[in-house]
Specification:
519 residues; alpha/beta; Rossmann fold; five-stranded mixed beta sheet; 9 helices; 24 strands
């Protein structure tokens, strides 16, 4: 009897001792199970968002520039106080109307939305506009506006990460008078883990922005390739006529380069339900968000990077994140950020110096256009290919390794070409010193229409089963989709043809391999 009693006590004592552990394990299991629907919901954010009703009326209809080759629309123009903002935060929208006029602001999220391309998120106004001062050129010809905000927008908690356009529309007092429109643009970002992190190339948008007349990093009297000009994000985006003969669409005024060089990729990703989140160049100064994602995309014309962006991308690659450069002329110039006059960080940039490490073409740039205060690392050791000379031109994308897994399902053979896909700038010096690097497409390209050059698209293995792909062209997205209002560019007597099922399949193959999805 005594033995039974002691045995029972020992069992009860052991059970009591392990009870907190058992309870803790049960709570953890319950928390894990509860988190599963949340994780699934997060991963389906883009699919669910694109099931909502889009709008056919989000484009600019009536645009007026100050002259036929002008950069700006003084009748109505504006800019935002930040490149990107998180849900729950606020962003100021600055607007000038000259002559003074009432106006509305409509906020649209760009996406697929059943082929419509955008969804109306909010209407703001009417506001009484006024003419706001064009700043006098400051040090290094900077134009930094000090405009009063028309409104402060609190980003609702349920707004999904994406690229947002604010359509500004004047409201003439006299109904016999016409209305005028332009855009402002900003990115809503988040910090969630996602399959794909899409980096917008807004440093390059701003570097080429000539607002109000001729004040980009390219237009200083000393020359167009030196470190002499500062540019500020505190000003409207003018028409992208810096690209004379490449894209010249006044109906995109105020939207930077997004509509011409990036929207077709975002539209296509959202059409196919990819789990994508968006950020600006300035959001990549640390790798924190990128390390939560499976793959990182550089899209379009991604020429200007702060060195901290480069280091972030290195850390992401080394940690196992897949890097994909669906871009050309990317990581070409060091673009240090600094704060504006009011202390807001990351609002001023300039051409600080070339990337390329100790490559011969870097010495050429330093000698011809320097001295520059900085030289960046060798971009080829990150991307797999470099920015050589010449770098402008157009050509066909010609397959060299059709047996590579990225070409599965395309039916492509060696030497098959995708017409006009290379341009208007490209990568042309493969980093063959990288172990395992493969050149998957290469061929001739003609700068100026007739001067022979060369491009090379590459892929190489990362250290943890990941990979780095370099498409070697700005125009890749042009063959993915044709969103409403999109205009195909051209370059040096060569042009892409629009959606091509082979480019779409290659992109699917790369992304599905990167995110570990089979479908």
């Amino acid at each position: 009897m005594s033995t039974v009693h002691h045995t029972t006590n020992r069992r009860m004592s052991a059970a009591t001792t392990h009870l907190p552990i058992l309870i803790g394990a049960a709570l953890l299991l319950l928390a894990f199970c509860a988190a599963l629907p949340c994780a699934a919901a997060q991963r389906n954010l883009i699919r669910d968002e694109n099931r909502k009703s889009g709008t056919a009326d989000w484009q600019l209809t009536r645009v007026r520039l100050d002259k036929s080759d002008g950069m700006r629309s003084p009748w109505i123009e504006g800019y935002c106080s930040r490149q990107s903002v998180k849900a729950g935060e606020t962003i100021d929208i600055m607007v000038s109307t000259d002559p003074p006029a009432k106006f509305n602001i409509e906020i649209f999220r760009t996406g697929y939305y059943g082929g419509k391309g955008a969804r109306l998120m909010k209407k703001l106004g009417p506001f009484q506009g006024k003419a706001q001062a064009v700043p006098k050129p400051g040090s290094k010809d900077i134009h930094e506006c000090q405009w009063e905000p028309a409104t402060r927008l609190a980003i609702p908690k349920d707004w999904v990460s994406g690229v947002y356009l604010g359509r500004l529309t004047t409201l003439p007092a006299d109904k016999e008078k016409p209305y005028w429109q332009s855009y402002v643009i900003f990115i809503v970002r988040d910090e969630r883990p996602a399959d794909i992190l899409f980096q917008c190339s807004d440093n390059t948008w701003q570097s080429y922005n000539r607002w109000p007349t001729h004040y980009s990093v390219y237009t200083h009297p000393k020359g167009n390739q030196g470190p002499w000009a500062d540019v500020s994000f505190d000003r409207p985006y003018g028409r992208q006529s810096q690209y004379t003969g490449i894209v010249n669409d006044p109906l995109s005024v105020g939207s930077g380069e997004f509509l011409c060089f990036e929207q077709p990729f975002a539209y296509w990703l959202e059409e196919h339900g990819y789990d994508v989140t968006y950020c600006s160049n300035s959001d990549m100064l640390t790798p924190d968000h990128g390390l939560k994602c499976k793959t990182f995309l550089s899209v379009g014309h991604d020429e200007y990077w702060d060195i901290r962006q480069y280091r972030s991308a290195e850390k992401m690659r080394d940690a196992g994140v897949n890097l994909m450069f669906f871009s050309g002329n990317a990581v070409c110039w060091v673009t240090p950020f600094r704060a504006n006059d009011r202390g807001v960080p990351n609002r001023i940039i300039f051409r600080g110096g070339p990337y390329g490490g100790k490559q011969e073409y870097v010495t050429e740039r330093q000698t011809k256009n320097g001295p520059f205060p900085e030289t960046g690392p060798d971009e080829g050791l990150l991307m797999g290919a470099r920015n050589g000379r010449p770098i402008n031109g157009g050509g066909d994308w010609i397959v060299t390794k059709p047996d590579h897994w990225m070409f599965a399902g395309t039916g492509m053979k060696k030497g098959d070409r995708i017409p006009g896909l290379v341009g208007w700038e490209y990568h042309n010096l493969p980093a063959t010193e990288i172990p395992g690097l493969e050149i998957v497409a290469e061929g001739p390209v003609w700068a100026g229409g007739e001067t022979l050059s060369h491009y090379a698209a590459t892929i190489y293995p990362g250290p943890k089963g990941n990979f780095v792909f370099n498409a070697a062209t700005i125009f890749w997205c042009q063959d993915l989709s044709m969103p409403p209002g999109h205009t195909l560019p051209w370059s040096h007597w060569s042009r892409p043809h629009g959606p091509d099922p082979r480019v779409q399949q290659i992109t699917h193959n790369l992304l599905r391999r990167a995110i570990g999805e089979k479908r």
